[in-house]
Specification:
single chain; five-stranded antiparallel β-sheet; five-stranded mixed barrel; 12% helix
């Protein structure tokens, strides 16, 4: 699964990486948790569009927003079999932007958090799905992160990892006219481990209340 991540990259670097203009100033986030707003990129049919959505997908038919707490991730292997995910998989795909995500490894002294990043430290995109829930006082846009099996970098810490999309697949993933399901599913694979890195971090990250720069630092540099 993916239950915590960060986005503390310079805004200009994000604009360059994803080829878009961000109209509002982004706030650095070091420890993003479920039910919080995340930075999302979609498409209006012509251009990429940046927005924010609540992390934890709420299906349109749901009567309770609390369901979102259980839907922060969607297993890519069964995406077409789940009522909550099969429609957005066809029509409401998005990129959820990050520069690192956290997982916890069981050790003799307790759970040790690790941060996973790109070797070049550039931001990247999780494959995401979004929905609009309109049973409240105003529309609520929410999203979920797709997951897949672990690669060689992540498998020693966790048996699952978020689907990270290579840049050349962004347009395909965002294209609402793309209806080749098998082609879309072929994108939902473990990311190239040779391009990734990991390091242990402080247990500060264990609490979502600790949204501070220290969460990003390697443990031996604390």
């Amino acid at each position: 699964m993916c239950g915590r991540f960060s986005l503390a990259t310079d805004q200009t670097a994000i604009e360059d990486q994803f080829q878009l203009i961000i109209n509002e100033e982004l706030t650095y986030r070091y420890n993003i948790a479920p039910s919080q707003d995340v930075f999302v990129i979609g498409s209006n049919g012509h251009d990429r569009v940046a927005t924010s959505m609540r992390w934890g997908l709420i299906p349109p038919w749901s009567k309770d927003v609390k369901i979102g707490h259980k839907m922060i991730n969607a297993r890519s292997e069964s995406i077409e079999q789940k009522v909550s995910f099969k429609y957005p998989f066809r029509q409401k795909r998005c990129l959820i932007v990050s520069d690192g995500f956290y997982e916890w490894k069981e050790t003799e002294s307790g759970k040790q958090p690790y941060r996973f990043v790109m070797k070049d430290r550039r931001p990247f995109a999780f494959a995401g799905l979004w929905e609009c829930w309109d049973k409240g006082t105003e529309p609520l846009f929410t999203c979920t992160i797709l997951t897949t099996s672990a690669n060689e970098v992540t498998k020693d810490v966790h048996d699952r990892m978020p689907v990270i999309l290579p840049p050349h697949t962004y347009d395909t993933w965002l294209d609402r006219k793309e209806d080749n399901i098998e082609h879309l599913k072929s994108l939902l694979v473990p990311y190239d481990a040779l391009l990734m890195d990991l390091y242990p971090v402080s247990t500060l990250v264990n609490s979502p209340k600790n949204d501070q720069k220290e969460c990003l630092k390697p443990l031996n540099s604390q």
